[in-house]
């Protein structure tokens, strides 16, 4: 079932992606503090995960154990090398460096852990690509300061960024500040970064205002971190990170078109601010209309304009389809306004599979932001089953990748979009971010653990492992 792909540039970074809290485990080792991921229970049967008010004695906290990568990374990297990976995207757990987030001095043991990890990567010829905050932050910053709604968080984050930029300045070139910074639009179903079981007590408008406030603080922090990175090492590339889901109109009715366009504006204004350096007018108007007070100062505006991101990191899993709701100010919420797209199939979790949407999105972003791009997540979550020989034949995953990579190659080779690399998500099976399950698997490498963390933890190659190895070796030609 080999397909013919287009040859990608020689220096293209074929990689793989994960995030610290979804695989490291070792949640209390090396002086690590409690992160917001550590207080999240697993979801069950499609019921979303719950953010608790602290660690309970007998909960099922999947992030506490991950896949024990804290202890196994050296061996896992050997498999990555065998697969031909040239880049590995992971995140630094903020709580390993600043256990509570508001200390002045970092935790040396945590710094050393990542020093060793980056050395091991480099020894295997793999380039680290590092996210500073991948859906996690010290829990203490939430209980003590209220999370990102508090402006003080800017200083804590910039200090964290400065410490790690300085420490790893000769090891890490590619950085990202906040993972999927735009995955906060669903303010009714609060995002953990805002800490927010608490937001349930607010009216919708109040919760929405807090979302814009928290996001503003994150974007100022991100811009300041970019400034610091360039002062420490001008070679460093600091990207924003956007969850990219193109939003299509359900019909050619002009009202649907306008609505879908507004949904795109609403969902991607973070990119406008981080890449173009200013808030779009429609949003300023909306704040004015709703009486929101986001407290954007003149100094903030200067910072945002001056220290824009170097590249657009993004994840891509699916597209969405919407119809007009008649709402002028767009109470757009990705959980309620979506319809099925009759042209697309869905994964077992209802994610609509849309390879062409990737090419569309890359062109859309290129035209709008004019920055190089980096696909730092793309992949297919599935219930993998081992056969009687203990093998996983994941042809459905291979076909998902063939179709998406083919469109990515067209965007680069035929359309001229500049792209640093491609890091498929969950290159090794790990804990799902949205459900806390192990059963939603993405990897080319199978990990023998179930939802309760039971199992040997043994790693084995799925069919997709060999497929990806061939693809990388051929620079994208042997699809
Ligand atoms: C993205 C997150 C990842 C990741 C992925 C897959 O939104 O950045 O952390 O987990 O989605 O999502 P899930 O694990 O919920 O299937």
TrEMBL record:
Q: Which SUPFAM superfamilies match?
A: (Trans)glycosidases
Q: Which UniProt keywords apply?
A: Glycosidase, Hydrolase
What GO cellular component term, any one, is given?
A: cytosol
InterPro entries (UniProt xref):
GH, GH_1_N_CS, Glyco_hydro_1
Gene3D superfamilies listed in its UniProt record = Glycosidases (3.20.20.80)
Q: Name one GO biological process term.
A: carbohydrate catabolic process
- For this entry, the protein name equals Glycosyl hydrolase family protein
